[in-house]
Amino acid sequence: xxxxxxxxxxxYANEDIFRWADEVHASHDxxxxxxxxxxxxxxxxxxxxxxxxxxxxxxxxxxVGARKIVEVGTLAGYSGIRMARALPEDGRLWTIExxxxxxxxxRRNFAKAGVAERVDVMVGPALEVLPTLExxxxxxLVFVDADKGNYHHYGAWALQHLxxxxxxxxxxxxxxxxxxxxxxRGRAMRQFHEDASKAFHSVCVPTPDGMMVGIxxx
Length: 218
Ligand code: SAH
Ligand code: DHB
Ligand code: MG
Fold this sequence. Notes:
Elements: H1 2-7, H2 15-25, H3 30-42, H4 51-63, E1 68-72, H5 78-85, E2 92-97, H6 100-112, E3 119-123, H7 126-129, E4 139-144, H8 151-161, E5 162-171, H9 184-199, E6 200-205, E7 211-216
Parallel strand pairs: 1-2, 1-4, 2-3, 4-5
Antiparallel strand pairs: 5-7, 6-7
The chain binds S-adenosyl-L-homocysteine, 3,4-dihydroxybenzoic acid and magnesium ion.
């Protein structure tokens, strides 16, 4: 039966359907296209969120009326542009990137997309950069999309520095299919989920690699 299939993980969409829905709901203007295509042009990994996931981020920013956002893992700025464009005029995105090359490319893409004045690209390991952002807390949204073995630390930081009602979002929440593995990254990602499920109203949205979304409880 249809419902039982979908509940156990079967997917009805195929590549053509995904492409059509992306085109209708989540198409790219020049700024988004430049950032999305950047990995191929600039020889960095093509590991940005998909178009519909990026659009979901944009919608979530709008839904909570976020003004202050922290992103962990910038890459070329694709997800950052999605979120920054949904910010109000006086909003701000701090996005953290370990690789200087990625940060340089992202700054160029933020400028092309017209959001450079709203975005601070912070270069360094996120665990060292996050404490420097605490002066701007509380935040409305924290999006975690960097080294998977530290997700539980990023989640703990987010819990401390989000406002009540603020969002914690984690990409790759199925850990490329290894969420249940007996590994450090598996344990870190499971702890990220379990901690979030206690302090947040939470769900793991079944995107291709899972996206954890939580609203901080009061
Ligand atoms: N959010 C981006 C994709 C991020 S890919 C998008 O969807 O467009 C993950 C990024 O995290 C990579 O650029 C990688 O260099 C960076 N990264 C990995 N470990 C990190 C760390 N410890 N601190 C900050 N960034 C890190
Ligand atoms: C990788 C990282 C990501 O954030 C992602 O969405 C896909 C792949 C990676 O490190 O390989
Ligand atoms: Mg990711």
